[in-house]
Amino acid sequence: MTKSAQALESFRQGFNCAQSVLVAFGPEAGMDKELCYKVAGSFGAGMARRGETCGAVSGGVMVLGLRHAMTKENDAQAKKNNYDEAEAFLDKFKACHGSILCKELLGHDISTPEGAKAAKDKGLFTTLCLKLVGSAVEMLEKK
Question: How many domains does the chain fold into?
Answer without folding.
Answer: 1
